[in-house]
Structure formats: structure tokens, C-alpha cells
Amino acid sequence: MKPTIKPTSLAITLDEMINETKRGRLDWRLELQSTDELDDSVKHRITEDEKEWIVDECFISFNCKFRGKDYLMITYEHIKRHKDLVRSDNLIFLPPLDVRYFDVGILSPYIIDADAVLLDRFHQLWMLLIELQKKQDAHVSIKVFDPFE
């Protein structure tokens, strides 16, 4: 079942969440799975446009309680590299709380039509939460998963 929230509404909610996070009023649980730090020799490769591309994938799960409602938002970035060329696609999902899989196929019914504004808000939220985590802020916890488990 596709979420009914519009990208503009979610962007406004994210703005409010960012502001509440800056005030120390939200607790975040992040989960991350990425191939970014792996050696290129173990990464997936695809051939497109007669070029071999090295593929990186990154899932980030954002979970918090905001205004009495539990939010689970998952972002996915698919990055292809060939020499100095880089192509990236981004997806955003709003699954039910019990759907916490880092799998695009499982998450696909919960996709949000992301625009540049919404992607920017998620980037702002990510940067804020990473900064707070570096300061060991108790309002942010991050769990990193091995992409091969």
C-alpha cells in the first residue's frame, strides 16, 4: 500500500523534525547499511552504455516519535562509478513500523515520489544527526549493519 503523504508535506514535517531535533526534543534511532567502505573488488558491477560500473548502495533508516506518532523513514542511494563518472539515484520509503528491511523490492510498495526539496531535507536531517552523534548526544543512536549479513 503506497503511502498517501505528498513530498511537500513530508518536507514540511522534516523541517519541523529538524527544528525539534536542534532543540533536543526528539530521540532518533538510525540504522545504516552501506557498501561504501568495502573494497571495490567485492562490490557489485553492472554494464551500461558499454561501460562497467561499480555499484555502491546505502540504506539509512530514520526512526523517531514525533507529535505522538512513530515515524519510520528509509532512504536508499544507488551510486554507480566508472572512472571519473558518477551517477546516483535516490529513493525514499515510508513503510509500516514492522517493515524494517533493507531491500528495495520489499520496500517498493511504500515509495514516496521524492523531489529535490525532499531529498535535501533528508540530507539536512542526516548531517544534523551525524553531527549530534559525533558529539555523543544521547538523543541519537546509530546501528551499522554489514551489507553481507
Helix share bin = 25-40%
Number of helices: 3
Radius of gyration, CA atoms, in whole angstroms: 16 Å
Enumerate the spans where pLDDT stays under 50 for 5 or more consecutive residues.
Answer: none
Element-level helix/strand string? HEEEEEHEHE
SS content category: alpha+beta
**How is the biggest beta sheet arranged?**
7 strands, mixed
Report strand %.
Answer: 35-45%
List keywords for this structure.
globular; 39% strand; 7-stranded mixed β-sheet; 149 residues; alpha+beta; 3 helices
Layout of strands and helices, then pairs:
Elements lengths: L6 H16 L5 E7 L10 E4 L2 E16 L2 E14 L2 E9 L10 H4 L3 E2 L3 H19 L5 E6 L4
Parallel strand pairs: 1-7
Antiparallel strand pairs: 1-3, 2-3, 3-4, 4-5, 5-6
Structure write-up:
This protein is of the alpha+beta class. Helix content is 26%, strand content 39%. The chain is built from 3 helices and 7 strands. The chain has helices at residues 7-22, 104-107, 116-134, and strands at residues 28-34, 45-48, 51-66, 69-82, 85-93, 111-112, 140-145. A hairpin with a 2-residue loop joins β3 (51-66) and β4. The two termini are 28 Å apart.
